[in-house]
Design brief:
mainly alpha, two-stranded antiparallel ribbon, 4 helices, about 5% strand
Length: about 150
């Protein structure tokens, strides 16, 4: 049981280390950048490394959380404390499963208010036609887009 918990919590931690190393390298490049192109490249590398770090950390957190719950359940330990936290294994929240929506009485049905179809309105406006009460915005501030290069 201990090995399983350790294995699941240490899952992909090497990728976290690689992301931290890539971020640190990009920070050094930023400090040593001699021109705008090198500074922009370093900033892009910092963004990418941060993004990867977040994704890998979330994977590790999910894996460790699941393994901890399994270990607590199988060992019969429903709660324990660390210096900073109280950890408890609690029952899952009950939810409704609809097996046949047609059998649900009308008073239990939601009736959403009508809402404008923004996709349809955007298409009409983009084709040069007017729609009373609607206009296209200018798209706002430019945003950065990152796309992975495909190695050929």
């Amino acid at each position: 049981m201990i090995n399983n918990l350790q294995q699941k919590c240490l899952f992909k931690t090497n990728l976290i280390k690689q992301s931290v190393d890539a971020f640190a390298s990009a920070m050094r490049d930023m400090k040593n950048a001699a021109d705008m192109a090198a500074t922009m490249k370093a900033a892009a590398e910092m963004v990418l490394a941060s993004d990867q770090l977040q994704k890998y950390a979330e994977l590790v957190e999910k894996s460790c959380r699941e393994a901890l719950a399994e270990a607590m359940e199988s060992s019969g330990c429903t709660r324990f404390e660390t210096d900073q936290q109280k950890i408890s294994l609690v029952a899952g929240r009950r939810s409704v499963i609809i097996s046949d929506p047609a059998l649900i009485p009308q008073e239990f049905m939601r009736h959403p208010d009508p809402a404008p179809d923004k996709t349809l309105i955007a298409n009409v406006l983009k084709n040069g036609f007017a729609v009373p009460g609607a206009v296209l915005n200018n798209g706002g501030a430019p945003t950065l887009q990152f796309k992975a290069k495909i190695n050929e």
